[in-house]
Amino acid sequence: MAISPRSDATFSSQKSTPSESPRTKKFPLTEEEIFYMNCRAAYLTVFKSSLENIISKDQLYLALQHAGRNPSQKTINKYWTPQTAKLNFDDFCIILRKEKPTSKAELLKSFKQLDVNDDGCILHTDLYKFLTKRGEKMTREEVNAIINLTDVNADGKFDYIKFCKLYMTTNEQCLKTTLEKLEVDSKMRRHQFGNHIEGSPERDPSPVPKPSPKIMRKTDQETFSNKGDTRSSLLSATRKFKTSVSFTITMGANGNQNSKLTEPNLIKPCPVNLWHWPRGSISTSKNSSIFEFPKWHKWCLLPVYQDWQYMQSKGCFFLEEDGEIISHQYRMQITQRSMVYLTIKPLNLSQVEGKPSPWLSVDTALYILKENESQANLQLVCFTELRNREVFGWTGELGPGIYWLIPSTTGCRLRKKIKPVTDEAQLVYRDETGKLFLTKEFKSTLSDIFEVIDLDGNGLLSLEEYNFFELRTSGEKCDEDAWAVCRENFDTKRNELTRQGFMDLNLMEANDREGDPCDLWVTLHSMGYNKALELTEACPFVIDIYAEKCKPKIKAVHMEACSGQLEKAICKSVLSNGDAKVMDGYENIIVHTYSCDTWITSVIENKSDEKVIIHINNELSKNCVNNRGLNIFAVEVGPKSTMVCQHVMPLNERQEWIYYCIYSLIS
């Protein structure tokens, strides 16, 4: 659901190459080609073929070590979750792009912090305390193994300068050995590994960057990308297409004025939820459906219902470093058969009238799945395909039961920003007495963050709400004991943290760091803010639920990647509602395309017993942007499987947009 990351030369510090072939003499290898050669070399040290899958944590750890990484258990667990069954070669390449090899300078800098005498050594007692008490704790046996390394230990001291040199030399030798092994077998050099095609007869001298593929948990995916003026000729020279099928869809300009989404008749305008206002500050006017606010408040109307029951919850889409999108996921309970009206829209946090939040243009959707017997058995019911401006909704009848609400965004508009930020905002300052304070700008940002993580909108943070924030920013949860300490030291109401308490909590963190905002910036970046305190890599949203016959209940239960169940739901929805075209001569390969006023989604279905590679060309589309950020790419679809190929949206909604895409089966 998100764009693939831009390519980079991950192995830039490890540019060893095998002996030159006639081809490399004629055209020197690009950094991208060196990267994939190193990836292949490391992978083939562990496996016989790049088509083999990584099927255990131990295999992943070993392959990463051969690639010059030294992954911690936390790193391994990040990529091998309880839901992971296997990883393929493309997944391995993505991991290597994200987990950069540690440089000698970084190692020295880390150790130097413990070097109290500045003599290049660390006392064993200090080293032991540091490794077993802080960060990812090591066991006594693991620390002893380091201390027992004779080359780097003497007189009760650990010589970290020697250790860093030994570490880098070992990595370089490991890479050299794997490359030499790869060079021996000429068959390996002629294989297609992941995104890199080696052995084409001629290569354009200009480099052609190739972004890494996106990891798909359920479907192996292989992405070929080509950029630059020569990409079409390169593709035609290196690939042969067996058959093709094309789609052309012309979409009219949409100013968002024509509404397809309408509220049920019994939902009437009424003021904001009363819990936002102090008791006694609101009085009823002669019109029973309007409440009068104090003079210092503006009049405010929101939908409330005469016979319909209402619930609301907030959440957020977060853009990860690799372009993947994660969000909150919810369980909804309906106690009796009822008409239900569901909506999702971006949450406007702007305090300036007439200047809405910039992320309001991000598309949102909500997939509703019914739980049958277990969470693993979810049945797609519907999704919010109707639209009124930035609001997407659905109206229909739901029977009693438990439903999962999975938010989705295509990734066409929530994507990495290329524009760099030069000026860093100030977060804290000291007054003339030396006392530390939060700046006005930072307090405003924290207030917005509070608004986003206050999922139920009651103006307070429960332990569950705060833990979603903690998991996002630190990867850890706050337990009951820590929460009790928090309640004792910061402002709370009804055992929940107030906005002021949340501010004071961040001020305490700044004081603990003696004014160093480093940890505060980690929090801000995790929440999607850049150095200018602009929310650029997240999109908060709000879900509204109206039920005619019963009080609906909604609860956030997870914050996960927009894949897995969502991927299945999108595929099923497109297969049920989209147009299908069969590849000529290959009746088991079907391309499904679903279009609405807002976006177009394509899904590839492979009914055959073999994997297939499909080449996609969007070059003739006009006024379009897709979630991959590429006009030309390719995907690998596993046997007996379906996968979301791409989402496409207009660059400018007020102009006509033409979707013209050619799908070709690669031989």
Automatic annotation (TrEMBL):
GO biological process, one term: positive regulation of transcription by RNA polymerase II
Zinc keyword on record: no
Entry GO MF terms: calcium ion binding
Residue ranges, compositional bias (Polar residues): 7-21, 222-233
Record's keyword terms, sorted: Calcium, Cell membrane, Cell projection, Membrane, Metal-binding, Phosphoprotein, Repeat
Membrane topology: Peripheral membrane protein
Span list, region Disordered: 1-25, 194-233
InterPro entries given in the database record: EF-hand-dom_pair, EF_Hand_1_Ca_BS, EF_hand_dom, Miro-EF-hand_domain
Signal peptide extent: none
Top-level taxon in the UniProt lineage: Eukaryota
Domain EF-hand: 102-137
Transmembrane parts of this sequence: none
GO cellular component terms, A-Z: ciliary membrane; cytoplasmic side of plasma membrane; plasma membrane protein complex
Xref: Pfam families: EF-hand_7
Subcellular locations according to the entry: Cell projection, Cilium membrane
Keyword Ligase: no
The protein's role, per its UniProt record: Component of the EvC complex that positively regulates ciliary Hedgehog (Hh) signaling. Required for the localization of the EVC2:EVC subcomplex at the base of primary cilia.
Quaternary structure and partners: Component of the EvC complex composed of EFCAB7, IQCE, EVC2 and EVC; built from two subcomplexes, EVC2:EVC and EFCAB7:IQCE. Interacts (via EF-hand 1 and 2) with IQCE (via N-terminus); this interaction anchors the EVC-EVC2 complex in a signaling microdomain at the base of cilia and stimulates the Hedgehog (Hh) pathway. Interacts with EVC2 (via N-terminal end). Interacts with EVC.
This protein's name: EF-hand calcium-binding domain-containing protein 7
Gene: EFCAB7
